[in-house]
Amino acid sequence: MTGDDLLRVLATLANPHRLRVVAALTRERNYVSQLARELGISRALLQVHLRKLEAAGLVSATIEVSEDGKAMKFYEVAPFTVLLTPEAITSAAPTLGIDSDVDVEVRPWPAGRSLSCSSARRLSSAPGTSSSPECDRRSRR
């Protein structure tokens, strides 16, 4: 996988709606109206996310005619594997194009919401440390 391909896939999957779409389509292929109902989002928003997933090669679509004569576009997950290791990034980085500038919106952590202590320890820079005094107190109990 080239650096541009890796960047495109990671940027596409960096959205909770698109992750939910991939998860739902992994269970079974589906058409837009039904999938939108299952996910609790509008068809228009779902179409936006499906187009991005399709452009990244993560889902594919086929048009079929229903029994009542309606054309229905069914989506399904395209087989893919992304192995994300430091070595994979090292080999992909030199293949990034000069114009590779996929920007992903990273939202700030919601105010008043905290990570679990185990998540905080996993994300902290030093092994065995935590990011909050509360987690430190809990671990000493």
Key phrases:
elongated, 47% helix, Arc Repressor Mutant, subunit A, 141 residues, mainly alpha
Describe the structure.
A 3-stranded antiparallel beta sheet has the order 1-3-2. The chain has helices at 3-13, 16-27, 32-39, 43-55, 86-92, 117-123, 133-140, and strands at residues 30-31, 59-65, 71-77. By secondary structure, it is mainly alpha-helical. The chain has a domain at 3-82: Winged helix-like DNA-binding domain superfamily/Winged helix DNA-binding domain (Arc Repressor Mutant, subunit A, Orthogonal Bundle). It has 7 helices and 3 strands, in the order ααβααββααα. Strand 2 (59-65) and strand 3 (71-77) form a beta hairpin.
Radius of gyration: 20 Å
Query: Could you list the spans in which at least 5 consecutive residues all have pLDDT below 50?
Result: 119-132
Output the CATH topology of the domain at 3-82: Arc Repressor Mutant, subunit A
What separation lies between the terminal Cα atoms? 47 Å
- Basic shape: elongated
Major sheet summary line:
3 strands, antiparallel
The count of helical stretches stands at 7
Number of strands: 3
Give the quaternary arrangement of the chains. Answer: single chain
Fourth CATH level, the homologous superfamily of the domain at 3-82 = Winged helix-like DNA-binding domain superfamily/Winged helix DNA-binding domain
Chart the SSEs and their pairings.
Elements: H1 3-13, H2 16-27, E1 30-31, H3 32-39, H4 43-55, E2 59-65, E3 71-77, H5 86-92, H6 117-123, H7 133-140
Antiparallel strand pairs: 1-3, 2-3
Helix pairs in contact: 2-4
